[in-house]
Structure formats: C-alpha cells, structure tokens
Specification:
single chain, 165 residues, alpha+beta, Alpha-D-Glucose-1,6-Bisphosphate, Chain A, domain 4, 7-stranded antiparallel β-sheet, 7 strands, 27% helix, globular
Amino acid sequence: MQAYDWSFFLLRLPIRANGKTIFNCWTTQQGLENWFLRSAKFIRPDGSIRDANSSIEINDNYEWLWHGWADDVAEKGNILELSENFLKFSFGKAENVSIIFKQEAGQNILELLQDEIPVDENSQIYYHLGCTKGWIFYLTNLKSILEGGIDLRNRDIELENVITA
C-alpha cells in the first residue's frame, strides 16, 4: 500500500450552469460574495481597489472575510495565475489553490487542487483535513446557488463551530 500524500488534495464537482457564470463566481468580488465570502476585496498592484464587478488580474492581492467569523479572521493572498479556464491563488500557510474549469461528458466540471501543503502533523490536521472540509462545503454551496438559488451559509457570528461557516 502506498503512503498517503498529505501535500495536496483534489476535489471535482459537476455544475449545471454556464461556464462563464461559474468562472465569474471565482474571479469577481461580487461573484465570490454570492456563494463564498462575506467580503472579497481585491487590490491592484498600484494599491487601488478593484470594482466589485471587475475581473481580477494576475498580481492582484486579496483580503477575504468569512460569514460566521469576526473580522480578525481574514485570509490574505495574491492571484498567481489566471486564464479563461484556470485560476491559481496563494492561500496563506495552506499554500496554493488552483481552480480548473473543464468540460467532461458534456458537463461543466470544476476542479479544486490545493497543493504544496506542509506535511507536518499540524498542517495535516488544519490545512489538509480542515481545508478539505471547508472547500467541500463551499463548493456544495456554489453548486446549490447556481443550480437552485439556495444559499446554505451560516451568517450568524453567534453560531460557532458549525459546518456551514
């Protein structure tokens, strides 16, 4: 039996929605706030803030805030790569996240790859297992919103340790 590789995980999800719509959900402030974040601010290399509907670009920095969490729980990083079917961004100590958009068997498939995760025990728990759990929920929420309009996120900061935040 081969040893488990804690340095990455890959999640795949079919979504019955237009490919451009799915892509915009990842590449604009408005798109990310619709299914994922309480606040998604993108900062251009010159320090100016992107408009909520404008598409991100390589070398933009971001500051993200989550529903159900206080403002001091923020994620900061930058956009590393971007094309019409690929997005890669840094993701704190959990390293990098790549989003791949593809067609398979006539369906739109979204793949999320989180890689270069440190392999110490703390990282295995918080970044491999913890991020896997979080991404499964948020990708499910993206699918729910795009296919049926129901937002599953917890927006109540007083409800702690729930799987929907």
